[in-house]
Amino acid sequence: MTRMIERWFPSSEVSENSDKGWGSGNSEIALFMWFAKRPTVQAKAAILCSLLPWPDEESEQKRLQDLVRSALAGRYAAWSEVRSEILRHNPQGASTLDPFSGRGMIPLEAARLGLPTEAVDYSPMAVLASYLLTEAPFKDRSQEPVLPFGQQPDGLRTAPADRLLHDLKFVFDEVQRRHASSMCDFYPEHSGRQPWGYLWAVSIPCQECGRRFPLVGAYELLLPRARREEVSFHIAADRSEGTWAPVVSRGAPTHQPTLRNAVVDGRKIAGKSAVCVFCSHVHPLAVHRRLLQEGQGRDELVLAADIDERGRKAFRVPTDQERQAVGAASEALRAEQPFNPLLPALPDEGIAPGNNNIIGPSIYGAKSYGDFMVDRQSLSYIRLARTISSLGDELTGAGVSHDYVRALTGYATAVVVKKLRRSTRGARFQSKGGAQVGDLFVNEGSITFSHDFFEAGIGDGPGTWRSISDNVLAACRNLFSGLQGAPAHVQRGTATSLPFPPKRFAAVVTDPPYDQMIAYADASDLFYAWAKRCLHTTWPELCITADPHGCQDKTEEIIVKRVRGDAPAEHRNRQHYDTLIARAFAQMKQVVRDDGVVTIVFGHGEPEVWQRLLSSIQQADLVMTGSWPANTESGGQQGKANIETTLTMACRPAPRNRPAGRKGGVEAEIKAEIKRRYPDWERWGLAPADMLMAAAGPAMEVVGRYSEVFNAKGEPVDIYTFLPLARSAVQEAMAVEIDHLPLETFDARTKFALWWVRLYGRQVQAKSELRWQTLASSMDLADVRDLVPDADKGVRFTTARQLKVAINTESAVVDVALALAAASEDGLAAMGEVLAAAGGGVNDTYLWAAVKFLADRLPDSDPDAVAFTRVLRVRDGIANAAENVLVAKEQRQQRQQAESVQLSLL
């Protein structure tokens, strides 16, 4: 049976809904901190199209297409209809598997349809995230006893999600109450209220005068808004006493912060320098970083922040009682007992060498994940973990089932994990947006470090337990509303050794790790260290690891790890990735049914990465049979921002006993297959740029008919060779004409330029797209690089003024056209000079066709579009001017020749 995804995919609907509403997945990612986000609309579309058939009759095709489009209108849209259709066409069962489940976005959509669903991931933190999203909410909790510290209203036993939501509210409130009680002595009240939190800064000894001073990068506290003055502060130095103190004032800052860009002897110092408030000595980045690495940094309490009953924020100098509480917290931290003999109170899990690019604090001296906080923060998290752990024991003692205890403590730990994003020395204070606590992950997947940072307290306000737990509870309300489906089954494992029998699943749908984009385990080890302490009794398997540093095991993590800093040889290199991803694909082939598909969602723009991916698919004895683009990454999501387009690819086990093929014959088949499918793509409204991506599917399907493909010399041909050919075949199938002239008949450089403008106009594209287009055009990158130069972190078609090319009779048509546009502001004579230099092509239909095309295709407001229109308008005048130039040139040559003759007669 041909699956829908092998012939059609709702690319436009996925693109339109990926960054808004239910299809964005924003509600789902609000539940737990993880680094990769697959939009729910793409996950749902991949599940539906992998399980539905592609009928032979066009009317049936349209009916199922319309059904899928209807199902993508909402979270549970057309639920009964699409579910019954899937079950009807899968009499053997419609089970699915995601062996790289991550936070569980793909398994979630199968679970919402009530289909048997397995989710596997290598990271314990991803397993926890998947469980909370795809398994726990769908289970019936109606027979669970009343929580020992809560009340159960009538009627909750009939709605599993309502029961879970109700109990989570009581658990979160109980955690807040108990944790605040355990920490109240260390966070004293001020004016009868708990402070929101405290601003800290690291101090260093000045290398000139020896006095300590704090490193503060900004003095803004509250920016001006309606009915609110701006508030700032500065560090004031008493040089006679050798002391410093914070001074809060109204208005904009009047002093420069101590951590700033500095200029010494007229030269700007690279990076932020630390400038002493006592003697103004400048400590460059390397110096103050070295001081921290040597352990000479000291945490200094700078300001306290309050929120009054009207929600207004205010800042002040900490009281003596508050300063004493800081010291008391340090003493209490040293007295904290281990969670168990193998789990000390303060995390001692070590930061692996070579992680400087991922774990920012390690650059400044942090050796373990227990070094990330001030003492009071560490004490607070230890007691928070004890609170959650003891609640789990109490719930178990009250007769609550083991699975439900795991769920309740798991959701509480999700709050801890999200709270950690607003904690540690990387949680910068932000004055924008009404004063907020910054996120640790400024650069996706990398934990930042800051010399000045904010410590949220135990009351109200951003970054506190109450604030974060309310956020998680709101996400649960959204996700549990109208909940339908059945629980997925989530387990930890490796995609290279799946614990399932052969031919178990109707479809494997997965979003594998992308080469070296994100080091998932390294970036989440901070969360892992604290999650172990929260869940060591209810999720004891979390504490089991083979990692020598006590963190998550990384032996078989399938990524390419970028290493920075001193480190031993990293095993997660490209060979490791390519070997293991091929092994994982082979495992997927083993567990999918003969009539099923392996659907791979992949988003990487680099041709070289695609080459390696296709090689891995081929090594797994899989054949790609469909490839569909969607713009899913442009919304600033938890994923790499520079990848906007992802492909949803369908693969099947390669047919047995395939013959060998010849390169020429395979190329002809690819062109024929793309030409055959092109009318459908056009009928479905697929954009030309999307057709280029979609062409990979039929091209690889054709190649997959053969065991090997040989060239004329009998040498094997790399499968990747055929991807540029597929793109070129799309161009041929489109039969693009430039003012009734076939694009194919233009010179190669002009054809490249006009095709680029046809696809993208003036839009910025990734540099990888330039490489793809160059390969498809069978040109060297150097031959066209000036036509598509760098612009705004990508590339963009050149402007006429930007292109500097000498025009002669051998010039490409596009160069002459751009030169005419550049000269148009200087008048007819200048344009005539260009046309004459090109050979005076007054009647060159290709030149004027290109000029007209560029005038029409570039945006109306584009200066070059205006220039090209101007060129067309005075075409006859340009011709006359060129003729005058040529006549004048000829007359000069005649005079020179006559003068030469006269000289020879003398």
UniProtKB/TrEMBL annotation:
Entry-linked InterPro entries: DNA_methylase_N6_adenine_CS (IPR002052), SAM-dependent_MTases_sf (IPR029063)
Lineage: superkingdom: Bacteria
Molecular functions per Gene Ontology: methyltransferase activity; nucleic acid binding
Record GO biological process: methylation
Transferase listed as a keyword: yes
UniProtKB keywords: Methyltransferase, Transferase
Keyword Transmembrane helix included in the entry's annotation: no
Protein name: Adenine-specific DNA methylase, contains a Zn-ribbon domain
Species: Micromonospora cremea
Lineage: Bacteria, Bacillati, Actinomycetota, Actinomycetes, Micromonosporales
